[in-house]
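Input/output pair, single chain:
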Amino acid sequence: MTRTAIIHGGAGGIGAATAKQLSAQGFRLHLVGRDADKLAGVAGPLGATFTAGDVTDASLFARVMAESGFSSLDALVYAVGTINLKPLQRLTEADFFRDFQVNALGAALAVQAALPALKAAEATSSVVLFSTVAVAQGFTAHASVSMAKGAVEGLVKALGAELAPKVRVNAIAPSLTKTPLAKALTGNEAMAKAIGEMHALQRLGEAEDVAGLAAFLAGGQSSWITGQVFAVDGGRSTLRTKG
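Output:
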């Protein structure tokens, strides 16, 4: 039986890379994102379908399930996020609300809408969410995004318990990865090199570095893993090789 997956953020760097890896594993895919043209560019070569919409629109999630046509769902990947880096005194109430809405509330609503299909899967189904290294290791100017992604990690634990044993729930916490979302930080070669050298592995992440684990967690080989947050961060959260 063909496995199915929905990927929110399917036209983004990590989402698109995950889509390619899951397609290679034989998954039927439905991709979700804001830009229909970018979605079509990723979906076309993979034979995937897609829905264009913004996760801040609560009506999106039911529409995704209807347009996917999936009555059962083996994997849901919510590869959506923000990089809103400001010191506390410059953060507005709107900043906090938007970061929470995109990162945490959107993840919860995506799972909620997909839950009947996830429970209908023949085998144990999988939810893959995304946190950040900045939850495990505090960084300046990260108050809003760290708070929002910290909520995602709490959601992983809560849903991992609530939805067991039928649905597994895990998250990945990357460090800075070279994706379109991070272009403001990675587009400057000198800045990218300096940040890369802060990692034990002396480089920034690539989308494929993260997508490899996302595809693994979405698939059957990880069938005894749930309630976990995995660092894919070049050692940034745990290793200090200088100083």
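Strands lie at 4-8, 28-33, 49-52, 75-78, 125-130, 167-174, 177-178, 205-206, 229-232. The chain is about 45% helix and 15% strand.
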